């Protein structure tokens, strides 16, 4: 536990603080855009690898499978480490793996094998699993309970900034100097294509160089800063003996039988799958339906989409502090579903704007489902494992894009495959509508904050 001498906050028994320590909160919040950068660069890598390694849409989805598969496999072990150590230790562990994963892109670019790149992406995902499991929960705990939802929403505001940064780095460092890669390799001899592929893969290194430097600086700042413990104090029995920390098995058992919490995990699974589908396929969707557009120009739709993602968070945050959170989210879900319906039904280049518009409605879902789900964990000794379950639900970002890629390959229409995220969005809207109905029936048990 970090020393608590000369600290400006008081920690309460439930783990929340009397005030939010600003510098520490800023450091935690600065971690958020970095995992967004990694996710955004995946969208660039998918477009690049499709040409370099001659992949179909299902095979390109393996990038996201490796990325979110790492989240799934490591979230629970990360929660165990958090439970036995501190949030600070978990964050530093996550940054270490993130740094190692980025460094692996250097040998991967020289070996020029799809498997090596997937391995590097997987190691990055291990780091991000630690970071999201710790930072999402830590952001809610590092201050007063009454502003927990506000804190995580503010932290999450930096995620679209990270997304935009990632896609801009990809646009100007990876796609710079190239038009449509698929068109460029047509007619090349085997030797010419091999040389071209080596050149393109070397461009992959450029954004990761800058990310590595920034990660190392952030690692040092967090390492030398005193961070709040922000964990619930163990309960004591009548004899004053501290209650033992729950085992992983006990925690999992409690959470699995908590129906409303598990519904939130399911909604988060769908959200992760839906968001990953749209972001992974938007660039290629633009390349398919807009005649003559280059890879470089197609990334503009992702930049606009990420900007819409950021802008969409702002009115949602304002509305959720004035109206029922579940009601606001229900309407966001309905409008987002309609945007994606337009994307896969409209016959014309404007269909791409349906996919872009859905980004506006994505904004508040991840942090809101996360905080709403943890609200259902009334025994706070299970909070760390509950946060791990929420992060494990990101496996949706691994599996649902595979389904979307399969629909695209089998139907021969990438546009039609957007029915997959549309169904996910509709189910999320139904989830929040059911939660809103439950809250209307049990107003005395509503724990929104």
UniProtKB/TrEMBL annotation:
Keyword presence, Cell membrane = yes
On whether Kinase is a keyword of this UniProt record, the answer is no
A molecular-function term among this protein's GO annotations: fucose:proton symporter activity
SUPFAM superfamilies assigned:
MFS general substrate transporter (SSF103473)
Give the record's keywords alphabetically: Cell membrane, Membrane, Transmembrane, Transmembrane helix
In which compartments does the protein localize?
Cell inner membrane
Q: Would you tell me the Gene Ontology cellular component terms?
A: plasma membrane
Q: Name the major location.
A: membrane
This protein's membrane topology, according to the annotation, is: Multi-pass membrane protein
InterPro entries listed in its UniProt record: Lfuc_symporter_FucP (IPR005275), MFS (IPR011701), MFS_trans_sf (IPR036259), MFS_TsgA-like (IPR050375)
Q: Which residues cross the membrane?
A: 21-41, 61-82, 89-106, 112-131, 152-174, 210-229, 269-287, 299-319, 331-356, 386-404, 416-434
This protein's superkingdom? Bacteria
Annotated protein name in UniProt: L-fucose:H+ symporter permease
UniProt organism field:
Limosilactobacillus coleohominis 101-4-CHN
Q: Which gene encodes it?
A: fucP
């Amino acid at each position: 536990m970090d020393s608590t001498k000369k600290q400006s906050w008081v920690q309460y028994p439930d783990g929340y603080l009397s005030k939010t320590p600003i510098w520490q909160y800023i450091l935690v919040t600065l971690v958020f855009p970095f995992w967004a950068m990694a996710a955004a660069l995946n969208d660039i890598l998918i477009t690049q690898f499709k040409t370099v390694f001659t992949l179909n849409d299902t095979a390109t989805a393996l990038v996201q499978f490796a990325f979110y598969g790492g989240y799934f496999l490591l979230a629970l072990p990360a929660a165990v480490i958090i439970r036995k150590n501190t949030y600070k230790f978990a964050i530093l562990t996550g940054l270490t793996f993130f740094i190692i994963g980025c460094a692996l892109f250097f040998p991967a670019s020289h070996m020029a094998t799809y498997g090596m790149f997937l391995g590097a992406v997987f190691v990055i995902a291990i780091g991000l699993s630690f970071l999201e499991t710790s930072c999402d929960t830590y952001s809610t705990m590092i201050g007063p309970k009454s502003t927990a939802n506000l804190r995580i929403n503010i932290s999450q505001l930096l995620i679209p900034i990270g997304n935009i940064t990632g896609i801009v780095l990809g646009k100007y460092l990876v796609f710079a100097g190239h038009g449509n890669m698929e068109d460029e390799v047509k007619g090349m001899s085997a030797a010419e294509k091999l040389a071209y592929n080596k050149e393109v893969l070397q461009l992959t290194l450029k954004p990761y160089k800058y990310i590595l430097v920034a990660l190392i600086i952030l690692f040092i700042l967090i390492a030398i800063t005193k961070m709040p413990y922000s964990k619930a104090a163990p309960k004591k029995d009548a004899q004053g003996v501290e209650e033992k920390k729950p085992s992983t098995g006990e925690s999992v058992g409690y959470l699995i039988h908590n129906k409303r919490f598990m519904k939130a995990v399911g909604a988060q699974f769908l959200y992760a799958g839906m968001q990953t589908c749209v972001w992974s396929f938007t660039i290629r969707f633009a390349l398919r339906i807009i005649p003559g557009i280059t890879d470089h120009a197609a990334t503009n739709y992702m930049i606009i989409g990420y900007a819409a993602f950021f802008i969409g968070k702002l009115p949602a945050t304002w509305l959720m502090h004035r109206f029922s959170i579940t009601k606001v989210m229900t309407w966001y879900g309905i409008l987002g579903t309609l945007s994606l319906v337009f994307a896969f039904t409209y016959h014309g280049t404007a269909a791409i704007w349906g996919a872009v518009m859905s980004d506006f409605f994505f904004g508040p879902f991840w942090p809101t489902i996360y905080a709403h789900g943890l609200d259902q964990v009334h025994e706070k000794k299970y909070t760390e494992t509950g946060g791990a379950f929420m992060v494990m639900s990101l496996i949706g970002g691994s599996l649902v894009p595979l389904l979307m890629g399969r629909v695209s390959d089998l139907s021969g229409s990438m546009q039609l495959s957007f029915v997959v995220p549309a169904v996910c969005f509709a189910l999320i809207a139904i989830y929040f509508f059911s939660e809103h109905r439950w809250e209307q029936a049990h107003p005395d048990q509503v724990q929104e904050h």
